[in-house]
């Protein structure tokens, strides 16, 4: 009972420290509740609609108008103007007023009537990641449809019986199947990872800042006097953060994901296992880093230059197999990586724990390593503040 009582007292002290400090309160209590809804609101539509596109119709024929009508019917595209001044179109691309230019050549219809191959030229603002999927893919599909119709008409006009057999007109077809993220929406893909990234970065920064405050407020002595066991001190300090951020995840999973209709294919009980292992290892890492810092503001500097690199290293937004070998090895030492690399396969594809065994082992190893590192630091700090 004494052990549990001490753990309780240490945990209560940690919570009082959070609620008694405006900065820690904002980071650890307010931010985890607001940020997911902020990002959810940003990606509320999930897919782009009416992406502005300019068409240059140099042919102005029945065929060119027909294919422009097909393009304009695409949900993600909005034909805003039909212009002929290329310099003006270049300016519109640079300014972001449009994101693509489609040019139909002058002899477009003549070539089609004669059965000759012709091309439609497309200029894309490839600086935007979604342009390829939002514009190029549907345009290509519509061109293929138009091409099959033109071929059929050409064969029919020339009394070629192949028109009776559609397979002869278009012998090779592609069947697109998307069992995961079937609507190919960017929001559905990125939001689960962003929410998890928010939580794990906040818990890392928050624990590090709370630990650094012990030095800033010269409170290490009072903390260490609460127990002679460094293990109890560590457990008592980490426990409230793990409990708090488990509650945040449950709230996000069942409230936020429902509000924004975010698909989540993982089994909740299985995902909770890797999530708990990860936030424990991240809390321990934050505690260890915090012991080296003199001021609680310093961990917030870390937030600025680590968030995006960690997200990219995880393989969530960029395939991990394409990462340099050195970066992969560095990733094994970062406690954020296992949960992020697991989130994609579990949340998007419904993978179970058997697919993420390496990430589970990685998290367990990091828990052991950071526990040892914390105990060594506590031992050194105890010698300084509580010499016997």
Keywords:
single chain, 388 residues, mainly alpha, 4-stranded mixed sheet, 15 helices, 4 strands, 65% helix
Task: Characterise this structure.
The model has no long low-confidence stretch (mean pLDDT 82). This protein has 15 helices and four strands. It has a four-stranded mixed sheet, with helices on one face. The longest helix is centred in the middle third of the chain and has 31 residues, at 186-216. 65% of the residues lie in helices and 6% in strands. It has helices at 2-19, 22-42, 62-72, 86-95, 108-114, 131-157, 166-169, 186-216, 220-224, 230-259, 268-290, 298-313, 325-331, 337-349, 357-385, and strands at residues 51-57, 77-82, 100-104, 121-124. The chain is mainly alpha-helical and 388 residues long. Helix 1 (2-19) packs across helix 10 (230-259), helix 10 packs across helix 11 and helix 11 (268-290) runs antiparallel to helix 14 (337-349). Helix 3 (62-72) links the parallel strand 1 and strand 2. The radius of gyration is 29 Å and the shape is elongated.
């Amino acid at each position: 009972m004494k052990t549990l009582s001490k753990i309780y007292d240490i945990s209560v002290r940690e919570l009082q420290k959070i609620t008694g400090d405006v900065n820690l309160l904002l980071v650890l209590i307010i931010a985890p509740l607001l940020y997911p809804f902020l990002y959810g609101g940003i990606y509320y539509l999930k897919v782009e609609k009416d992406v502005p596109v300019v068409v240059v119709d140099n042919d102005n024929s029945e065929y060119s108008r027909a294919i422009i009508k097909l393009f304009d019917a695409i949900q993600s595209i909005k034909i805003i103007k039909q212009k002929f001044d290329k310099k003006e179109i270049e300016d519109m691309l640079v300014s972001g007023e449009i994101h693509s230019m489609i040019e139909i050549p002058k002899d477009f219809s003549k070539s089609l009537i004669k059965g000759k191959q012709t091309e439609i030229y497309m200029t894309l603002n490839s600086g935007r990641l979604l342009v390829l999927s939002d514009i190029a893919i549907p345009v290509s599909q519509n061109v293929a449809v138009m091409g099959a119709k033109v071929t059929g008409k050409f064969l029919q006009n020339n009394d070629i019986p192949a028109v009776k057999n559609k397979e002869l007109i278009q012998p090779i077809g592609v069947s697109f199947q998307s069992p995961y993220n079937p609507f190919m929406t960017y929001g559905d893909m990125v939001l689960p990872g962003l929410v998890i990234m928010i939580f794990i970065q906040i818990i890392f920064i928050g624990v590090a800042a709370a630990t650094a405050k012990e030095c800033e407020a010269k409170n290490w002595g009072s903390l260490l006097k609460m127990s002679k066991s460094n293990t109890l001190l560590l457990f008592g300090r980490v426990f409230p953060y793990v409990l708090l951020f488990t509650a945040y995840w449950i709230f996000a999973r069942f409230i936020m994901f429902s509000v924004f209709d975010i698909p989540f294919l993982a089994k909740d009980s299985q995902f909770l296992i890797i999530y708990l292992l990860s936030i424990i290892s991240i809390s321990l890492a934050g505690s260890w880093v915090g012991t080296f810092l003199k001021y609680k503001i310093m961990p917030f500097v870390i937030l600025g230059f680590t968030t995006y690199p960690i997200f990219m290293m995880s393989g969530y937004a960029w395939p991990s197999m394409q990462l340099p070998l050195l970066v992969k090895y560095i990733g094994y030492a970062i406690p954020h990586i296992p949960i992020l690399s697991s989130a994609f396969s579990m949340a998007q594809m419904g993978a179970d724990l058997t697919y993420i065994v390496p990430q589970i082992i990685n998290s367990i190893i990091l828990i052991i390593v950071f526990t040892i590192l914390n105990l060594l630091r506590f031992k050194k700090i105890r010698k300084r503040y509580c010499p016997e």
